[in-house]
Amino acid sequence: MVRILILIILVALFYYLCKRFITFMNADSDEAKARKHNQPAEEKIVKCAYCGTHIPERESMLLDDKTVCKQQPCQHHDAT
After folding, report:
1. Of 1, 29, 54, 71, which is the most buried if we count CB atoms within 10 A?
2. Exposed, middle or buried, 57 (CB in 10 Å: 0-12/13-18/19+)?
3. Cα torsion at 55, 59, 65, 66 (round to 10°)?
4. Quick one: pLDDT band at residue 80, thresholds 50, 70, 90?
5. CA 41 vs CA 7, 11, 28, 37, 54: distances in Å
6. What's the rounded mean pLDDT across residues 1-20?
7. What is the pLDDT of residues 25-45, one digit of tens each?
8. If DSSP states are collapsed to H, E and C, what string results for the chain?
9. Angle CA(12)–CA(15)–CA(19) in degrees, nearest 5?
10. Rounded distance between C-alpha atoms, residue 46 and residue 72, angstroms
11. Per-position b or e across 58-67, b if 16+ CB within 10 A of its CB
12. What pLDDT sits at residue 50?
């Protein structure tokens, strides 16, 4: 009778440890997925209408409905 009780306790302990291990591994993979999704999205690259330089969209601005880079020559270009 004691052997059966010890066997049941060992099986229950094994089940509990396996379940915790699987939960721990899933938490790690969920954490990795969350980090992957928090990475910034790819940024659009645009071409400056005046100098022809390809730049990230965040480094550009609209000037007379044309995309230009924020560098000094392009920023003050006369659209005559």
Report:
1. 71
2. exposed
3. -30
4. very low
5. 54, 47, 23, 9, 18
6. 93
7. 777 665 666 666 665 667 789
8. CHHHHHHHHHHHHHHHHHHHHHHHHHHHHHHHHHHHHCCCCCCCEEECCCCCCEEEHHHEEEECCEEEECCHHHHCCCCC
9. 140
10. 17
11. eebeebeeeb
12. 83
pLDDT at 16: 94
Q: Which residues pair with 67 in a beta bridge?
A: 62
Check pLDDT > 60 for residue 65. yes
Side-chain half-sphere CA neighbours of 30 within 13 A: 6
